[in-house]
Amino acid sequence: MRFSRMLIPTTKETPNDAVLASHKLLLRAGFIQFVGGAGLYNFLPLGKITLDKVRAVVKEELDKAGCNEVHLPIVTPLSLWEETGRADKFGKELLRFKDRHENSFTLSPTNEEAMVNLVRQTVKSYKQLPLNVYQINWKFRDEVRPRFGLMRGREFLMKDAYSFHATTEDMQREFDLMEQTYKKIFTRLGLEFKVVEADSGAIGGAGSKEFMILADSGEDTIMVCDACDFGANVEVIAEDETNCPKCGGNLSQTKGIEAGHIFQLGTTYSEPMKAEFLNENQKLEPFVMGTYGIGVSRLLAGIIEQNHDDKGCVWTKASAPYNVDIIVAKAKNEEQMEVAEKLYSELQAKGVDVLLDDRADKKTGFGVKMKDFELIGMNYAVVIGNDISEGKVELITRKDLSKESVALENIVDVLIEKLR
RNA sequence: CGGAGUGUAGCGCAGUCUGGUAGCGCACCUGGUUUGGGACCAGGGGGUCGAAGGUUCGAGUCCUUUCACUCCGACCA
After folding, report:
1. Global model pTM greater than 0.90
2. Which among A85, A220, A243, A399 would be 20 to 30 A from A96, CA to CA?
3. Which residues 307-366 on A are within 7 A of strand B at the CB atom?
4. Which CATH number fits domain A3-309: 3.30.930.10, 3.30.460.10, 3.100.10.20, 3.40.50.10490?
5. Cβ–Cβ contacts within 10 Å for residue A76, how many?
């Protein structure tokens, strides 16, 4: 893509209302835009691209683990929620409204009931099990206090998966598989994270684990063991506990952003909703279920909370809207522009996500392009400038802002190696 | 829902105490000069001051009511 044709409204001023780094930077770098209602944001082109990239990583790993992607309507009949009693339990957080026929509906905050309904209408035999179905879809929760930009919006993109099994043992096997799958997803996204024991909250069920992105700004307090991999949310462990219940090692307190949560549900939903299958003994049994969520839009905030500096965002390779930014120092210089166009085509041909900063208006000089590169936080910038007469370009690494001079003929290979 | 704060141009703000017909920076438009780290000069466009009501000759400013947003708390996949 060419910068000159993209809507990227970067700003120098820090928005007054934003407190968190991710909130400020995503606004300043033109990824998102405040709509006016609390917790509602427009995703601008850069934000949409980044969201889609993160979403693709989530989808790929789930598909590899044998999950089935589906798509449910965001509007759900309230009657489904009444079957499980959650219409009352969710309270005001569940946004309700009526259609022209006075029928009650909700904007889905999560989809256990809707997905159980999908499965009970289609799965009748143990031979069809196990089954894991998921969607990556917008959710709406009328939060008491939405805040911190994408961290706790009212409308947010969530991956919600639901597994159905004949036995508890098989559900636990899937639970472990999802834990491994989540670890792959978070690792691919370049995140530093911790899996912790957690409370099951309003979803209900037996065991649950949370995937915490480690960041000082996190809303959750967690206890982690420095000797083994044990970790727990303070909701489920005494905050003054100093010894690891697993290995006896030292526990220390830290902050985390809850970006994923997996639950062993059992029959909490299948029983009241009469979602049953016929077992090998020809008897009806309720499905044993698991449910697994990832806050996809929250991941964007989490990635930035963990990866930013005073100049702007520092996206990880898997999440950056573009991995390479070609900066044409003087876009009116024909030679520079020619070299830049050629490099742009070559990188595209090699499958590299590249942005060409070809802006040639008189207000957009080299300084502006550099500032935008730093603020947006793409992984690398290639500066096509004066050195081009000697066959050299400058390669800048966003993470440490280091600069190196590279021969033009080698730059494609160097970049591909770095992005590997 | 309790506490605190803020609503004035697209964004960031001043003006409100002490009422006199709206201003600054950024952004935007035109022309010129610049061109490797958010340039400079000149000119220009854009606001019924969150909303409603009231006091007054006159309200951004005073009074009443109301709405929204932000932060802290409670709550929360």
Report:
1. yes
2. A220
3. 311, 329-330, 332, 362-363, 365-366
4. 3.30.930.10
5. 20
